[in-house]
Amino acid sequence: MEDALGLSLFEREVRRLKLSPAGEILFRHTRRITTPLESAMAELDMLRGLRTGQVRIATIESVGLSFLPDLIAEFGSRHPRIHMDVAVLPAADVLSRLVAGEVDVGFSFIAAAPPPRIEVALRRDVRIGVLMVPDHPLAAVPNLTIADCLSHPLAVAKPEISIRSVIEPFMARAMMVQPPMVEADSIRMLVELARSGRYASVMTPIGAQGEIASGSLTFRRLEDPGLPANRFALVVSSGGELRYAPAAFYEHAKHFMSTIELPGAL
């Protein structure tokens, strides 16, 4: 090859060879050509079940309580050698860990405009409403609003859960003084409080699909004018490229999320 190029590719010393400047240039460009091919072959090996890998997932609690276990089980059955690490976090922490490169894929509620360095792969919008037992007095109220709910024992999310910032202005407008209520930093706790029969929980139906489907709880959407939908999304960092196992999980999650039925979905 040196004869063909008319350049020396190695500097020959007494006991070793090292790349010459021309050799370094050729090596650098060769790597640019071969690296994508190596990546492609590695991903094909993974799909054939020959490659192990790891996917680091961050999720809000409500998604972890609803469809994420089925998504993970389906993916795991197709790729049994891939290790999955799941962290259940507040929405803001899901996004910050993505940006920091500490996780590969996230499931989070997001604002209308995603934060910097966050790429939204797929978004699903769901209604905000009230979860309660079927014979709760609020279940029969037409055009249910937050003001209607305030005359009954109520359970709401703490500020660290994203839905609280959405409903807070509507709660403030509906009451002069905040009545006693239960504030919880757990979606599962809000579901269980609704199951008790005493409380109505303000939330989305995400995280309570099983109870709604079985009829043990009912979900009524809130009709307050201007109350936005809550937006949850499959998100990744926009600053890098997913490889191997995370890329396969990402594609699987996009398809799964686009096809599932969600109560309260728009």
In words, what does this structure look like?
By secondary structure, the protein is an alpha/beta fold. It has three domains: 37 residues; 104 residues, Periplasmic binding protein-like II (D-Maltodextrin-Binding Protein, domain 2), CATH 3.40.190.10; 93 residues, Periplasmic binding protein-like II (D-Maltodextrin-Binding Protein, domain 2). 39% of the residues lie in helices and 23% in strands. The strands form three sheets. The chain has a five-stranded mixed beta sheet with strand order 4-3-5-12-6, with helices on both faces. A five-stranded mixed beta sheet has the order 9-8-10-7-11, covered by helices on one side. 33% of the residues are buried.
Provide a compact summary of the structure.
The chain is built from 10 helices and 12 strands. It has 266 residues and is an alpha/beta fold. The strands form 3 sheets. Strands 4-3-5-12-6 form a 5-stranded mixed beta sheet, with helices on both faces.
